[in-house]
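Lecture 7 notes: from sequence to structure.
We start with the chain below.
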Amino acid sequence: MAKYSRIEVATVMKENGMVPLFFHSDIELSKKVLKACYDGGSRLMEFTSRGDFAFEVFGALNKYALAELPGMILGVGSVTDAAAASLYMQLGANFIVTPVLREDIAIVCNRRKVLWSPGCGTLTEIARAEELGCEIVKLFPGDIYGPQFVKGIKGPCPWTSIMPTGGVSTNRENLKSWFDAGVTCVGIGSQLISCEILANKDFEGLRLKVKETLETIKELRS
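Predicted structure tokens for the same chain:
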């Protein structure tokens, strides 16, 4: 069962401004990545469900977070159906992120008051997601649409909260373009938690990168 309500999660997403995205099949390595992000100041992590037995890794990670990392909010991404969403919520997922808009996922998440963020690519999809109770819409793939698309949406729909994923980097100019356009937060995967960092097990480097990125976002929004 989720520890944090969808309103609590949405609030932290807005406050932090960034959601790191990560998957690895090695539980112990994953714990170290999570700890590095936590020590760098992140209070969110999207575990992307993209490998065999991913739910087992997530279950172990969430138990670790609950025991050792107070205030850390774990969610799951790349969820494609209601059954998978329900499984992860049984393991304590605090939010569910999907690559597409799926009403069956909306139903099971809303029933448990768990935040769900569907991947949308048109204003019609975004409007439907909001009608289904979505707090923060995932713009995916972000590099296809870009900041100008966000600006276009925010014109007629200033209430819409958007989290682009894909096409977002830790580069200051890249981040500035997204936040100037009006995004609520950004999702960053391999541009933050790179293959090089994982291969070298450079967890201190990851901690510093997370810290610097969060500081940049805070400066850009001040």
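Points to note: The beta strands are 18-22, 44-48, 73-77, 95-98, 115-120, 137-139, 162-164, 186-188. The two ends are 35 Å apart (CA to CA).
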